[in-house]
């Protein structure tokens, strides 16, 4: 005689074209699991098999977020440039594709494939913040003011994870990367004008150790590109993940991801060949995985702790180790909650560095803990004596693309590098809303009705009063 053993969240397949909202009620159906003389019946076996595949795919989605985020940039970088070239990002139209970009600082960016050769990287002296990331967005080294060259410039040698450091190199510093594909980028912080930016950029070099730096290319990034930097969705997410992982040695974290995907038609040696059933499960997993990523990134149940207990500004970076290797676990949730909404990190962003580097706070709700809504108008009061040695900025991002907000006024950032209205007490009022309050044009970012958004508050060269929390800004308060 059959009896009900327990209930299982089983699949209803065949509706992958529906939106997440449409799937809310029928995404998963509760079904009993039956035992017959101690054995599972055939229907329960099939339900459990699909459930196992789905659970593994949802887990793989989380681990893969930093990889797929960087792969989105890499594959589009290669449409405009080649490994070792520099793409230059200066204005809003160029940066609109990069998730949570900052329009204020010029970006100089390259990708390198160390399977072909070790590379030299050269940067000049100056207030330059440089970073080198592996394929999982784990910092390999800071360069520039927070790097070993301390802003004096230098020549770096970068070698792959399975390569030996070549003899007779002439680099000042050696970096052994943990992955074959690496990202290199700098932000020029202290330049007084575009001419100085260009001069410093033309002293950036990335080249194979067997080549000459004379062939270096600096290419202006495409204005208003069609792509957006958020992670791809549906089956493309897994295609991007495969294309990134297949270039790397099977080890550590990626071994875990390969293990999770092996029953879904995706293996390094066998290629990317999920069948129809596996594709449907993979697509559903990206939809559920992204919804979970939203919880971890935007909500008060996220892995992001508050900077001030009585404010809703949260640390966007919550990892405790640069390599994400906590003594008890891998900080997968911490890096996932960051890389769902942002891209690239560095020592200067993770560790306390008074007067140098940068610190970011994110906000997703107003003072009443309601989601930020583009139909409303909000006010932020920034008190005087902002703890920033260089400058501060507030940037507004669309919560779907996670890119700088696109509006009629073509403005997404307020910062103190430009002329803004300052109150008599030295504070600054920043407004975000569909209409500009009279007299605050320089302090206003236009929001789009019917669209959600979030904001970053950036401090470049954070000072002690940021770390000891004696300086405090307001919540994002709705103007009623």
Automatic annotation (TrEMBL):
SUPFAM superfamilies attached to this UniProt entry: VPA0735-like (SSF160935)
Source organism superkingdom: Bacteria
Domain spans labelled DUF1254: 97-207
Annotated signal sequence range: 1-21
Keyword vocabulary terms for this entry: Signal
Residues covered by the DUF1214 domain: 360-463
Protein's name according to its UniProt entry: DUF1214 domain-containing protein
Protein source organism: Flammeovirga yaeyamensis
Source species taxonomy: Bacteria, Pseudomonadati, Bacteroidota, Cytophagia, Cytophagales
């Amino acid at each position: 005689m059959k009896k009900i053993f327990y209930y299982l969240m089983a699949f209803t397949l065949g509706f992958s074209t529906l939106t997440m909202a449409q799937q809310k009620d029928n995404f998963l159906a509760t079904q009993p699991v039956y035992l017959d003389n101690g054995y599972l019946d055939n229907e329960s076996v099939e339900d459990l098999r699909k459930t196992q595949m789905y659970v593994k795919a949802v887990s793989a989605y989380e681990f893969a977020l930093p990889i797929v985020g960087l792969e989105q940039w890499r594959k589009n970088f290669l449409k405009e440039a080649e490994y070792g070239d520099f793409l230059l990002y200066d204005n809003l139209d160029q940066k609109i594709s990069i998730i949570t970009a900052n329009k204020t600082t010029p970006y100089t960016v390259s990708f390198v494939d160390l399977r072909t050769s070790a590379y030299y990287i050269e940067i000049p002296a100056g207030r330059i913040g440089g970073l080198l990331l592996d394929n999982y967005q784990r910092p390999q080294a800071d360069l520039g003011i927070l790097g070993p060259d301390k802003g004096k410039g230098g020549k770096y040698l970068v070698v792959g994870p399975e390569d030996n450091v070549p003899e007779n190199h002439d680099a000042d510093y050696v970096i052994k990367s943990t992955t074959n594909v690496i990202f290199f980028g700098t932000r020029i912080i202290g330049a007084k004008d575009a001419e100085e930016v260009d001069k410093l950029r033309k002293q950036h070099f990335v080249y194979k150790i067997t080549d000459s730096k004379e062939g270096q290319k600096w290419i202006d990034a495409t204005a208003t590109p069609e792509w957006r930097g958020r992670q791809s969705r549906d089956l493309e997410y897994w295609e991007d993940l495969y294309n990134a992982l297949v270039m790397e040695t099977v080890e550590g974290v990626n071994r875990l991801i390969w293990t999770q995907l092996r029953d879904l038609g995706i293996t390094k040696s066998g290629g990317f060949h999920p069948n129809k059933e596996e594709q449907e499960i993979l697509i559903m997993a990206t939809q559920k995985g992204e919804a979970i990523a939203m919880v971890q990134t935007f909500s008060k149940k996220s892995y992001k702790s508050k900077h001030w207990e009585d404010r809703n500004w949260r640390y966007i970076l919550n990892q405790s180790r640069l390599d994400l290797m906590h003594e008890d676990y891998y900080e997968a949730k911490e890096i996932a909650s960051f890389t769902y909404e942002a891209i690239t990190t560095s020592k200067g962003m993770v560790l306390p560095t008074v007067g140098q580097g940068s610190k970011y706070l994110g906000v997703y709700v107003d003072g009443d803990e309601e989601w930020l809504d583009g139909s409303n108008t909000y006010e932020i009061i920034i008190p005087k004596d902002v703890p920033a040695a260089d400058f501060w900025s507030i940037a507004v991002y669309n919560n779907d693309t996670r890119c700088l907000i696109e509006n009629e006024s073509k403005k997404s950032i307020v910062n103190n590098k430009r002329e803004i209205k300052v109150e008599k007490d030295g504070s600054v009022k920043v407004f975000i809303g569909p209409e500009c309050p009279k007299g605050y044009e320089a302090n206003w970012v236009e929001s789009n009705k019917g669209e959600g958004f979030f904001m970053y508050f950036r401090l470049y060269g954070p000072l002690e009063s940021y770390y000891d929390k004696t300086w405090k800004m307001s919540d994002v308060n709705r103007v009623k």
